[in-house]
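note to self: the first set is below, dont mix up w the second
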Amino acid sequence: MTNSTTAIVGIGATEFSKDSGRSELRLAVEAITAALTDAGLAVADVDGLVTFTMDGNAEIAVARELGLRELRFFSQIGYGGGAACATVQQAAMAVATGTADVVVCYRALNERSGRRFGQVAAGLAGNLTTAGIDNGWHYPMGLATPAAMVAMIARRYMHDYGATSEDFGRVTVADRRHAASNPKAWFFERPITLAEHQASRWIAEPLRLLDCCQESDGAVAVVVTSLERARDLPRRPAVIAAAAQGSGPDQYVMTSYYRDDLAALPEMGVVARQLWRQAGLGPADVRTAVLYDHFTPYVLIQLEELGFCARGEAREFISGGAIELGGRLPLNPHGGQLGEAYIHGMNGIAEAVRQVRGTSVNQVPGDGPVLVTAGTGVPTSGLILSLPVRCSRWCGHASWPSAGLVSGRYSSQVMPNTHKKIAHNCRCVTSGQHGSKRPDRPVRRPQRLCRRRGG
């Protein structure tokens, strides 16, 4: 989609709480300011803003508060949490096409102290919109909260594949264990056992309280720019190796009950196929994944749609601590929305960036790519973030100056269709070293910083 020419170069967030004590606009500005500071950029560098249609802070209002004089790109993505990764996709496309140079994606909400998504909003069924018409079919039947809507899918999944409430609980146990060692998480130092999950009260059978994500106040922002510009910034960039959106057949918002296979999330399958194709990777290449965990059953179904296991086999896949730190696929090292905070998935993107940088409090070893997904049960989106490409096929030069250059933590994998462009930024091109040696016989010499300035 962007040919790995764009990257996330800054992340910022407020504290995560149950009562922020300030407006959502102020939260947004605080997170954006922190992200720009992290990126080493000034407010004047920003010429694009992207957010959710559900965000209460219009781009022009945020621009006024930040002191931005002009915007060349602004966009909003629909479908609630399904927008999270798509905000980065839109920003990356804007940068890759030259529409904008520096784009900030943000989400701010007082979802606990303000409007609580888990409560019934009867007025939504009376709106004279297509969404209002859709809601009019199921609100009278009592399907008026996200938990109730997901419970229908979860029950069918259990019926079809033999999954149990304990299987769902293993997702919560893993998330809370990770959150317990994350000082920024709401549930810091508060892990749970599977027995505690099973003892939690029903919300909408088969979903228990601890199957449902928490309600949070807070904000998160990320900064997207070109990989070329990132070379002059202080932080190691998280390269956007792939970004995609997806909607499935007979798609509704949380109530896609009219499909041939009810116990599935085909919209995530649409996203998955695009991600693997764009990045030239597969599930086996992923080091860690940040999967949208608003409700635990959807984590299992996502694993299947993404290709980590076959349909109906996720309960076996996650058994034995496989999704915990040290397992074969650690999920949500920050604690996810069940453990850290519910910021509509944007805090998951920030964690993926930390994993690429090597700065997470629960760092997963290795240098492989990181997968991120957005909200499910709705049209959704996803990302694959990776380390900057290393020019190892010929000369071994690194395309990004960082501490990782010394420690040898850069991946030697060359992503499809990217090496040629990055090679042109390498000084050995002009000296004839590229091409003068066969690709299967890399030149062994001290590594140099591949920048347009400096050797």
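second set (the one i keep forgetting abt)
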Amino acid sequence: MAAQRVAWRDRRAMAAAMSNIRSNTGTVEVDGIQYDWQLQREPQWSDDAGWKGMTISLQEQDTKREALLEFPAPKRLLKGLPRGRLQIDDATISRGVRAALLAGWDPQSRGKPMVFTVDSDGN
């Protein structure tokens, strides 16, 4: 019986770790081009600026130039409520890729990462 509990806990821990990995990185396709994304920073409190939202790193596959999407802080944090799960989905990332491209991001160029501020929907 004890061996079954340990195995169940191990499986539960492994499933939680795997779901964490999936929610923090991924790949989206926008207009036939693959873009890798990664969560760079979760929402956090800053003494000088208050709540800062999450930041997502974007990079077209097989290129070097990166774009950083800065999202606003979730409204629940601004109201003093506890943190919830981050809501990152492919549609939001795809809208963020399109917004960065329209704002002048050239993934084929060289240079420092470009930083773009987007709304909570990625626009």
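remember for set 2: The first strand starts at residue 25 and ends at 30.
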